[in-house]
Amino acid sequence: MAGICAHVADLVRHIxxxxxxPVLVGYxxxxxxxxxxxxxxxxxxxxxxVLESAGLGxxxxxxxxxxxxxxxxxxxxxxxxxxxxxxxxxxxxPLFATQRDLPAAVRAAIRAERTANDAETLxxxxxxxxxxxxxxxxxxxxALVRARDAGTPVLYVAGERDTKYCAAADRVRAAGLxxxxxPSTGHNVHLERPDAFCAALA
Length: 202
Known about the structure:
The chain is 59% helix and 10% strand. The chain contains ten helices and four strands; from the N terminus they run H-E-H-E-H-H-H-H-H-E-H-E-H-H. The chain has a four-stranded parallel sheet with strand order 1-2-3-4, with helices on both faces. The longest helix is centred in the middle third of the chain and has 21 residues, at 61-81. The two termini are 30 Å apart.
């Protein structure tokens, strides 16, 4: 986790030095990595910061232990079953229920992207970059508030039909930060409602 966050921070600084401060946008796991980068590397030169359907970190150490156990089980499942069988199950998770309404060609492209991954690499991602490796949610929210107070606009985006991350949006809002909840949309807002996502981003 420390290594990937350092890489993201270096990339942000490189772009800022050459082209001006970038907008950093992170979706799902990418959002968790972006948020953790902000925790570990405060004061990054960002024009703005957007999280889409991203976990904010464990609520407490009990939650951290539960996440570590879950992700360890998922990693073991990848190693024993392989990517194809794992994705057969992964796609049935409630988180992705709204994606079953997407056009067949889009669903096929998503499936091809998922199954192109290597099982061992995905297992290591779960172990090294899983939510159990994030700072506590309170620390993540504090980092977002500090960024906002330092002049970096912050936005949290979630789909209305994604109850888990709508709840996260509620907690972001309770911390005094802006959110955008996109109607009739699930976990992957930019895929399911690209028009609404781009409007929120703009």
